[in-house]
Write a structure and sequence with these properties.
With about 200 residues, this protein is mainly α. The chain has 7 helices and 5 strands; from the N terminus they run H-E-E-E-E-H-H-H-H-E-H-H. The protein has one domain: Butyryl-CoA Dehydrogenase, subunit A, domain 3 (Up-down Bundle). The termini are far apart. Keywords: Membrane, Transmembrane, Transmembrane helix.
């Protein structure tokens, strides 16, 4: 059973961080980050690493995700490639942040790791938000791009990571320690009733 050295309030950011990682992973590796339109293509979902098979002419496989072909991937510009590799990096950082945060359920971290924990959440959140630069990519110039489910989840994940980063700033100074170690009472000092009697 977890010993909660930081108190049970650490469960809140830990849960949010896990949800944010799940949202970000879905947004990056599925095929519905944006939906593209033009006069020849209407309403096809694409992602950084996969696209709907409908883009390859298989109109009956609208919900099937397939990898980009080499010919298609060769047309990606820097903005879209940043989404591919920056998104993968953000997801890896989020998993590291999750693992570090889950460690706080069982043990107290050194101060340097507490600072790193906060930094990892902020960095993952910033990288996730920068994925929206893909809307300025060459693909979204040739096609009209609208955020799909994955794009919305990416924005949500970014906000959750930034929020978790703010919360974990105080993880080394829990609001309430269940063992009562955060507050000490000097028995030699008079309490409130004794002060009233002295007056």
């Amino acid at each position: 059973m977890p010993c909660f050295p930081y108190g049970r309030q650490v469960l809140f950011p830990a849960t949010l961080s896990l949800c944010a990682s799940a949202f970000l992973g879905y947004a990056i590796f599925d095929c519905n980050f944006v939906e593209i339109f033009n006069e020849n293509v209407g309403g096809i979902s694409v992602g950084f690493w996969q696209t709907a098979d409908e883009l390859n002419g298989n109109l009956d496989n609208h919900h099937k995700c397939v990898a980009w072909t080499d010919a298609q991937a060769s047309t990606f510009d820097d903005s879209w490639n940043f989404g591919r590799y920056g998104g993968a990096l953000a997801f890896a950082l989020s998993l590291l942040a999750n693992a570090s945060l889950l460690m706080t359920l069982f043990t107290r971290l050194p101060p340097a790791l507490e600072t790193m924990l906060c930094f990892l959440h902020f960095l993952a959140g910033i990288l996730a938000s920068l994925l929206l630069l893909s809307l300025k990519s060459k693909m979204c110039t040739e096609f009209e791009c609208w955020l799909d489910v994955g794009g919305v989840l990416c924005i949500t994940a970014s906000g959750l990571f930034l929020f978790c980063g703010c919360v974990t700033m105080s993880v080394g100074h829990p609001l309430a320690d269940e063992g009562g170690d955060d507050k000490s009472v000097d028995p030699t000092e008079p309490d409130g009733e004794d002060l009233d009697n002295m007056v």
